[in-house]
Amino acid sequence: MNSFGMKLRYSTFGESHGKAIGCLLDGVPAGLDIDEAYIQSELDRRKPGKSEFETARKEADEVEILSGVFEGKSTGTPIAMIIYNTNQKSKDYTNIKDVFRPGHADFTYFHKYGIRDYRGGGRSSARETAARVAAGAVAKLMLKELDIEVLSGISEVAGIKAETFDYAKAKSSIIYALDADKEEEQKEAILKAKNDHDSVGGVSRVVIKGAPIGLGQPLYYKLDGVLADAMMGLNAVKAVEIGDGILSAATLGSDNNDEIRANGFESNHSGGILGGISNGEDIVMNVYFKPTPSIFKEQHTVTTTNEEVDFSLKGRHDPCVAIRGTVVCEAMAALVIADMLLLNMGSTMSGVSKYYK
Amino acid sequence: MNSFGMKLRYSTFGESHGKAIGCLLDGVPAGLDIDEAYIQSELDRRKPGKSEFETARKEADEVEILSGVFEGKSTGTPIAMIIYNTNQKSKDYTNIKDVFRPGHADFTYFHKYGIRDYRGGGRSSARETAARVAAGAVAKLMLKELDIEVLSGISEVAGIKAETFDYAKAKSSIIYALDADKEEEQKEAILKAKNDHDSVGGVSRVVIKGAPIGLGQPLYYKLDGVLADAMMGLNAVKAVEIGDGILSAATLGSDNNDEIRANGFESNHSGGILGGISNGEDIVMNVYFKPTPSIFKEQHTVTTTNEEVDFSLKGRHDPCVAIRGTVVCEAMAALVIADMLLLNMGSTMSGVSKYYK
Amino acid sequence: MNSFGMKLRYSTFGESHGKAIGCLLDGVPAGLDIDEAYIQSELDRRKPGKSEFETARKEADEVEILSGVFEGKSTGTPIAMIIYNTNQKSKDYTNIKDVFRPGHADFTYFHKYGIRDYRGGGRSSARETAARVAAGAVAKLMLKELDIEVLSGISEVAGIKAETFDYAKAKSSIIYALDADKEEEQKEAILKAKNDHDSVGGVSRVVIKGAPIGLGQPLYYKLDGVLADAMMGLNAVKAVEIGDGILSAATLGSDNNDEIRANGFESNHSGGILGGISNGEDIVMNVYFKPTPSIFKEQHTVTTTNEEVDFSLKGRHDPCVAIRGTVVCEAMAALVIADMLLLNMGSTMSGVSKYYK
Amino acid sequence: MNSFGMKLRYSTFGESHGKAIGCLLDGVPAGLDIDEAYIQSELDRRKPGKSEFETARKEADEVEILSGVFEGKSTGTPIAMIIYNTNQKSKDYTNIKDVFRPGHADFTYFHKYGIRDYRGGGRSSARETAARVAAGAVAKLMLKELDIEVLSGISEVAGIKAETFDYAKAKSSIIYALDADKEEEQKEAILKAKNDHDSVGGVSRVVIKGAPIGLGQPLYYKLDGVLADAMMGLNAVKAVEIGDGILSAATLGSDNNDEIRANGFESNHSGGILGGISNGEDIVMNVYFKPTPSIFKEQHTVTTTNEEVDFSLKGRHDPCVAIRGTVVCEAMAALVIADMLLLNMGSTMSGVSKYYK
């Protein structure tokens, strides 16, 4: 249950304050150039402590490849990657040793497993997403070979919406803002919440460019369904939209249909997916993150023995998890697309014959 | 790729205008009372042609159980159920034999598989969802034994939003409306679109009551992720929200967190899921359906040989797929919850020992 | 748990005395010519009642395709096939309604599921293998397109061993005997056991010709491992050998290694598999069937309430299940090879690039 | 494809001469006492270089747990274990850099993946089995809690067969011999082959004691089928028998059936499995290992460019892989049984209700 993907399958392990976190990536085609510097650069985009808009926890997040690569190329065997935890401060958590933090998984993990790993959320910590980014970076290297690109940025913070989506701009923005004209306002909203010992939500917009027609395995491993699972499974995500998403529920069919001409679709309300299969247009989705549940304001809660307590959280936390979350969305999207590319091979007998004859 | 679920696994087969559709349901615990009348009654809720708000295609949708049941009880072996197609009018589709209908899967299936089953959308038709409802009905029978209930209704049509969510009312409403005060307005919107040869979108709200704490397998088979996959995988669905969903991205942590008292949570912004695991509160989600792509207005499109044509669709179609879609959402939710209940067994060593000792 | 295969996945359903048995075959590449007459001819090879060497139960075993085929070609959607049971004589089993037949699954199914479907073994009956043969026939059609052939025959009956392996001869033999010189003796052994109200065991030898190098997914979906699972999972099978199998455990490395020359291997002790991957030689295995547990001699057993009884079985049974079993071995081998062919696509980045560019 | 198991799922990574090998074990129930010393002791049983009967390669095989354990107990999250390689001598292999060793996977891996990791067999090396033993040790800890024991020993070396099966004796024997009276003869056979620059095959006998009735998921995840896959998938294994195995194919039904009395079965020809489900008797299997393909005698082979060469292997190798292999067989059996125990929960509705009510 700690694995994802069918043909390109990755599994992750590790807890926020354990020795290390890491992943196993199985199914990478042999002969792919594994650019370790690139993988590290992706981890650097997600790593904490880069600015006042992020948690103060500093982690080098240096990734080490343990297997599956020989002389710079993938061998077709599992690629194991490990990231050691270096900056745990478990004592920050001793005061909540037996307390369930509202909005966190503490309560549900304890009741499911009967055990309380109180150190920074243990397995449920967003720290695990570093391993996703490492796996996603390898997927991105594979997609590059096929001229497929995954881009993302922050389209909304605390209700302040981007009006333009400039993915190049997002790459250079410290908060990955898509709209330069909204960036300052969005930054201020984050800092205000931070100063108020509170947190804000945000939205990541992800686009996949260059994906071929035909990705997605109907009817129960559809491209949109699997992307929704991948994104909804991220910490703090509460909604996922494909294309026009929610808006389309309020429109007319005649407005929502994407008509077709010889040179392609006249619009992309569908977000590049029809019947769960990519149609060659940009694949577009919006991922909605709730505000970081870790806030310093006093809150009502109970202990593992169900005693009521009022407490104020300590520790180091992101005032807006969507910021670093958008890097993880990209990684997940890349992993899904790479998996679908491999699954799609063999959809037709002519393709199979061509491959073997 | 035509299967869903891990421990309770179902697979479906069949095309809109083929001989039959059906499903295989594997993993149903032995000894469950299989109430065939109940299964049929669920199919009757989804079946077409019940009113002017639905397609005119009339299908009895009579389900026959072929295996897995002996003397009224499940035997632990796969339950195969079949529904014969009786009212195909394939000739309705001969005029679009080589034409891709905008908003439909025709284009993507053809390019993925190199074959055009033009008869009513073939495999991609929402007709397949009848098989989901049959499987879901068995899941509901299992949930009933555990006092878990899955309810749903239409919370929005063409932008007209329900303000109250009365699931009992929805059951008796011909359009499954949750808000009696909005029902008429919503009905009018549907009929207006129908008379305009157009279609409208809508939203289904689904709630699961009585689910125990602990459902969901982190980190990659989370309850919210799998529900999102299940719902997004339905025909015409473009967005899925859990709990406050999109709203939570615009709120503060101090407003969004559900504080806890000895007798439970003080609110349910999370929609009953924390860290991908159920927390004992109602599990709540909203499922957004786009307008039916099948409209009678003239549209631009191309043929399988990429020639541009303008055409007007014929055939029989739902003016608002969300209506019958809400019944399918219930079925999917029931299947996911039943699967998670079975997967959750064995989460703790004490549970395993209790089972075997 | 009623499914097999990863990329070409099939599921079966049905009980010996239920309405019907059947299968779902998912993952068949689109555009394969589906020769229904050929599928039926494979079922005819397995069907019972063809001679005195088989059970007297007569079943037409007529297969009907319900989905996944349009205008004679596979569409890429699941192929559902159904075979109605026509000659159940459940009353033959009323005398063993509460009795566990020695050597049968009655005892274990009852204790696992708490339910006794006494009618001819219910789900555990070898009747289910008709569905495997139908699925296997489609796999064989796919293999034919790639010039891969699956052959088999009976190499041993009641300890009487074939010395030559003539697969053409086997096809025409009523007991699928590989060695014409042993056929009579083997037939006599079967009839003698039958007249003594007893049964005999036998061995099926299966060979796959023309498989490319590279089939098998190390380290946990190896070709030999999956073949072993597929064969050992068949009713009455108690041992599986690849290549020299048991003999190799008693030889020296210098005798057992297959040395290599420019034009290929100098021998095939390995049975065409090295490290779980096909090496281009014939893939060879031996499948050992125990004697039919259904015998008419009086036996000791107990009832579902654990009362001791001595009883003599009635009903209609094969005196040697290996005979018809060899046809099922072929089907399973074909399904495994077809699955491995599809899984193998995407093993190398150059293959992936070639496919998409 | 580097994973095994459904509910208790483990994945391994690493190459013979890479930085490290290891495994991820997912699905271990929370609250299991994780005795690290025991896990290490199991690795010590398998580790090389303990005697003249094994390879001279010395590896400490010290296992480190990276995750999934908190305060000595499993947390329900993935248990990652790592073993660093310390004694690689890759230069031993430079003379075979481009040469395919007969009987090895070199040839098939190269043709499947287009890459040659010549260092000690890379991923295909039996070194990977250390990771299996680590995972298996955790499974054994789980089985112990349920009073289930997995035992094994060597029943045959170079054709010299044990006549008694003394599992306690095997534990203390340097070659894990089951029969004290045959141990010397078996040892001599190994040393003779070693001195002749050759190798010998052998047979491991595995027995599982105390398994409850009902393990195994028919019809395609049967206990015998999955055990066959698990064992056949081990390096050098060429045949697997359950119970009387091959012998049963030559006997009569009246001899082979295990008759039943109120206190249990009168015999155990079936090896404790009927219809793919455990029947409460000892589960017994024999696993046949071919001779180590690595021998020092000159052999014919070809290079990666298909040039013929005669060469003599260097390096350090086991003269009889079955010896250390039997420890791996135990580990695999433990993993399969633990997986089946977890899968079996939920087989009946009464069991499910008991668990949740």
UniProtKB/TrEMBL annotation, chains A, B, C, D:
UniProt lists the gene as aroC
Q: What is this protein called?
A: Chorismate synthase
The lineage, from the top, is: Bacteria, Pseudomonadati, Campylobacterota, Epsilonproteobacteria, Campylobacterales
Q: Which reaction does it catalyse?
A: 5-O-(1-carboxyvinyl)-3-phosphoshikimate = chorismate + phosphate
GO terms in the biological process aspect are:
amino acid biosynthetic process; aromatic amino acid family biosynthetic process; chorismate biosynthetic process
Q: Which parts of the sequence bind NADP(+)?
A: 46
Which species is this UniProt entry from? Answer: Sulfurimonas gotlandica (strain DSM 19862 / JCM 16533 / GD1)
This protein's pathway reads: Metabolic intermediate biosynthesis; chorismate biosynthesis; chorismate from D-erythrose 4-phosphate and phosphoenolpyruvate: step 7/7
NCBIfam families tied to this protein: aroC (TIGR00033), PRK05382.1 (NF003793)
| Entries under SUPFAM superfamilies matching the protein | Chorismate synthase, AroC
User: PANTHER family recorded for this chain?
Assistant: CHORISMATE SYNTHASE (PTHR21085)
Q: How does it assemble?
A: Homotetramer.
InterPro entries listed in its UniProt record: Chorismate_synth (IPR000453), Chorismate_synth_AroC_sf (IPR035904), Chorismate_synthase_CS (IPR020541)
Q: Give me the comment on cofactor binding.
A: Reduced FMN (FMNH(2)).
Q: Which residues bind FMN?
A: 123-125, 235-236, 275, 290-294, 316
Listed cofactors: FMNH2
Give the EC number(s) listed in the UniProt record. Answer: 4.2.3.5
GO CC annotation: what is one?
cytosol
Q: Which family does it belong to?
A: Belongs to the chorismate synthase family.
Q: Cite a single GO MF annotation.
A: FMN binding
What's this protein's function?
Answer: This reaction introduces a second double bond into the aromatic ring system.
Which key words tag this protein in UniProt? Amino-acid biosynthesis, Aromatic amino acid biosynthesis, FAD, Flavoprotein, FMN, Lyase, NADP
